[in-house]
């Protein structure tokens, strides 16, 4: 039985944008598969662990009560290397719930298997995260490299209903022909829900003016607005990049972010989880290298006006 319920494919997004993200720490180099796994083993995190974001140094709502209406709850996924979760659990990379009889998604440009990127259960997702009716598992695959014109990778999304019994599963594809910087190490998510406020560019004009002239003790954009790292829901960190649906030519909705690392030299005082040592093995646990620095990330957008719910990725 083919358990795949829905599939959405997305071409790449052309064009670039200026990089206004904070200065990054020096990222680890991309290594071969066995070296990556051996290196990650020194930073294993037990499944019983938690990750906790420090309290914001300033109460934004106390300063601007009208911002409460713009608060969104994001899910910081905190991917960490350790014992791989089962195929039905939320995770980054590794073995997904993919029945052995189903055809594996392939990149339309390179004709290589797409890599399993992110799997998210309904109960771990933020409120209003889009799930197809009668489904409870979201799966995201991508081409394990940038496109030939240096654009974002192609995407494929699957929404499934987790079955009561699991039959034989297809193994993850081999990484021949892949850029290992786009192939995540198998990581467990340590789910944490955090409050986010919009970038000033996405605020109503009057509110934006107030925040722009405000002189808090920390920077609003890097310390009080949006969380860095891989996350679902909330606000996009980069408001100056957008995505337009190639089918209906209307603006798409922000869905999630896949980030090379969780914090930078600028953001670590605010967003580094209290339980993490300041080491690359935790900061960049998934082994992703999505750009020229570990400050590179992809913001993923979705269009639910179109029947197939197409996706697009934008370098952030």
TrEMBL record:
Name of this chain's protein: TIGR02996 domain-containing protein
InterPro entries listed in its UniProt record: DUF1963, YwqG-like_sf
Cited Gene3D superfamilies: YwqG-like
SUPFAM superfamilies, sorted: Hypothetical protein YwqG (SSF103032)
Stored Pfam families: DUF1963
């Amino acid at each position: 039985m083919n358990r795949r319920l829905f599939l959405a494919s997305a071409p790449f997004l052309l064009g670039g944008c200026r990089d206004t993200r904070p200065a990054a720490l020096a990222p680890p180099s991309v290594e071969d598969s066995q070296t990556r796994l051996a290196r990650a083993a020194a930073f294993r995190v037990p499944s019983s662990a938690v990750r906790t974001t420090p309290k914001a140094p300033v109460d934004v709502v106390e300063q601007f009560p009208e911002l409460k209406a713009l608060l969104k709850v994001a899910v910081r996924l905190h991917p960490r290397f350790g014992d791989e979760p089962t195929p039905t659990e939320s995770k980054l990379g590794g073995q997904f719930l993919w029945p052995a009889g189903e055809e594996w998604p392939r990149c339309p440009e390179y004709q290589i298997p797409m890599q399993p990127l992110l799997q998210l259960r309904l109960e771990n997702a933020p409120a209003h995260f889009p799930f197809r009716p009668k489904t409870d598992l979201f799966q995201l695959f991508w081409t394990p490299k940038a496109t030939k014109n240096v654009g974002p990778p192609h995407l494929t999304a699957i929404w499934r209903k987790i079955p009561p019994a699991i039959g034989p599963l297809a193994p993850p594809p081999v990484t021949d022909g892949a850029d290992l910087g786009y192939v995540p190490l198998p990581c467990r998510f340590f789910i944490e829900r955090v409050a986010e406020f919009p970038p000033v560019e996405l605020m109503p004009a009057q509110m934006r003016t107030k925040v722009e002239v405000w002189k808090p003790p920390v920077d609003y954009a890097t310390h009080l607005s949006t969380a860095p790292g891989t996350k679902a829901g909330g606000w996009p960190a980069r408001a100056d990049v957008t995505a337009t649906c190639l089918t209906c030519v209307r603006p798409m909705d922000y869905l999630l972010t896949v980030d090379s690392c969780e914090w930078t030299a600028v953001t670590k005082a605010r967003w580094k989880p209290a339980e993490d040592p300041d080491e690359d093995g935790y900061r960049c646990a998934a082994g992703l290298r999505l750009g020229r620095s570990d400050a590179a990330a992809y913001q993923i957008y979705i269009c639910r006006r179109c029947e197939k719910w197409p996706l697009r990725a934008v370098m952030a």
